[in-house]
Amino acid sequence: MERVLRDGFIFLSQNKTLNGLAKRYGLKFGAGRFVAGDSLEASKRAIQDLNSKGLCVTMDHLGEFISTVAEAEMMTQECIRAVEMIAEEKLDSQLSLKLTSLGLDISDELIRSNMERILTRAKEVGVFVTIDMEDEPRCEKTIQLFEELRQSFDNIGTVIQSYLYRSEDDIKRVGRFETNLRIVKGAYKEPATVAFPEKEDVDHNYIKLVKLQLSLGNYAAVATHDDAMIEQIIRYAKDNGIGNDKFEFQMLYGIRVERQLELVKLGYKVRVYVPYGRDWYGYFMRRLAERPANVAFVLKGMVKG
C-alpha cells in the first residue's frame, strides 16, 4: 500500500493542470505545513524564527514546469533577490535551487548564464548555493554543469540521491572539488534500470554514500528524518574521529521539529530546508510520496480549516 501511495503522489506531482490550479487557489489543503508561505517576506519570517532556535536554513523558491525564457528570467531574479535578502537581513541561510526552474530544459547557454549570474551575486554577498538534483534523465547534465561552475565558484554544492545506482561514482567524481554534498534518498519515480526499487537497498546505499563522502574528507549534509540513520552517522563519526564541523543534519520544514531541536542541543548543526513560493504543488506531492504518513497531517489541516 505504501508503494501504491508513493507512486500515486509522484504521478500527481507531475500533472501540470493540477499544478496550475494549485497556483490559483494558494496554499490550502495542508501545504502550509511544509511550505513557508508564498512570498520572500514570508520566508524571511520563517527563517528568522528558525534561526532564533539555533537552526540553520537553506531556502528554496519553488518552481517547476518552466518552459519559457521569460519564466526562467523571473526565477533567476527571485534567486538573486533571495541571496541579497539573506545578506541584508543577516540570516543564517543558504540558497537551494532547481535547474529546471532556471532554464535547464530550454538551452545549455541559458542555464549556464542564469547560474553564473546567481552565483556571482551570491559570492559577492557571501551566500552558499546548492543545486538540487532532480529526476535521473537530468542527472548527468546537472553534474556536468556543476563541474563547469565549480571551476569558477567555490560557493556551490549539489545533491546526490541514494536510490540511483550511479551515485557512488558521482560522489567520487565530484569529490576532487572537495564538494559540499547534500545526500538524500530521492523523491522521483525511476525505473529499476537506473534506481534501486527496494527501500531496504536505498537505505543501505544511503549510509554507504554518507560514509564515502566523509571518508573522502568532504563535507556531508545528511538529509534524513530517520533516527536509525542519524544514529549510525553519529556513531561512524565518533568511531573515526570525524568532527561535528564535517557534517550536518538536514530536515524539511515542518517535519520532525522536536527532533531538529534535540540534535541542536546535542551539539550538532541542523539545517532546515525552507521552501516558499506559489509553485508549491509538485514539491508538496513529493513530500507526501516520500512519507505517506504525512497525509494524516494534511487531513487534519483540512478538517480544522
UniProtKB/TrEMBL annotation:
Keyword annotations from UniProtKB, A to Z: FAD, Flavoprotein, Nucleotide-binding, Oxidoreductase, Proline metabolism
Pathway(s) served: Amino-acid degradation; L-proline degradation into L-glutamate; L-glutamate from L-proline: step 1/2
SUPFAM superfamilies: FAD-linked oxidoreductase
EC number: 1.5.5.2
Top-rank taxon: Bacteria
Cofactor: FAD
Keyword Phosphoprotein attached: no
Protein name as catalogued: proline dehydrogenase
Species this protein is from: Exiguobacterium undae
Lineage, highest ranks first: Bacteria, Bacillati, Bacillota, Bacilli, Bacillales
